[in-house]
Automatic annotation (TrEMBL):
This is Nascent polypeptide-associated complex subunit beta. It holds the Pfam family NAC. It is found in: Cytoplasm; Nucleus. One of its GO terms (cellular component) is cytoplasm. Residues 125-168 are annotated as: Disordered. Belongs to the NAC-beta family. GO terms for biological process: protein transport.
Length: 168
């Protein structure tokens, strides 16, 4: 067979055709990735089912977590159904430490968050004191831990035996 003719056939085969002359061209399947607009439409549909209304004028949202961090949203979209006690907050959220946001959020802190703020302040003070006086560090702190545990005074096994003898 002629090498030029063979090269032409190979070039045709490498295009969209699977078979030879006269066969159906192969269809290219394109998978589209869901865009942010599609996700937003799904979210809007779910929010409609909950009968929530948009709340305008919310500049930031802070959610205080149990580990002492804060989930911080700037310019979030907020929807609420107050009668059902349902709130939907969506947008770009960032996990930040409580100390990063302290000056601006002092009026938002509840009792749990104030307790975690105190713990953070105490830990920072202890770290700073430990850096200033490293020689006092280790042994004194271990002795303080032992003082918190009360000593065992009574023998519970003897009391259990006495109770069993009274029952018999």
């Amino acid at each position: 067979m002629d090498p030029v003719k063979l090269a032409k056939l190979q070039a045709l085969a490498s295009t969209n055709r699977i078979g030879g002359k006269g066969t159906v061209r192969r269809k290219v399947v394109r998978k589209t990735k869901p865009s942010a607009a599609q996700d937003d439409k799904k979210l809007q549909g779910a929010l409609k089912k909950l009968n929530v209304q948009p709340i305008a004028g919310v500049e930031e949202v802070n959610m205080f977590r149990e580990d002492g961090n804060v989930l911080h949203f700037t310019a979030p979209k907020v929807h609420a159904a107050v009668s059902a006690n349902t709130f939907a907050i969506y947008g770009t959220g960032h996990v930040k430490e409580l100390t990063e946001l302290v000056p601006g959020i002092l009026n938002q802190l509840g009792p749990d968050s104030l307790a975690s703020l105190r713990k953070l302040a105490e830990s920072y003070q202890s770290i700073q004191q430990g850096q200033q006086r490293p020689a006092e560090g280790g042994a004194a702190e271990e002795d303080d831990d032992d003082d918190d545990v009360p000593d065992l005074v009574e023998n519970f096994d003897e009391e259990k035996k006495a109770d069993l003898e009274e029952l018999n």
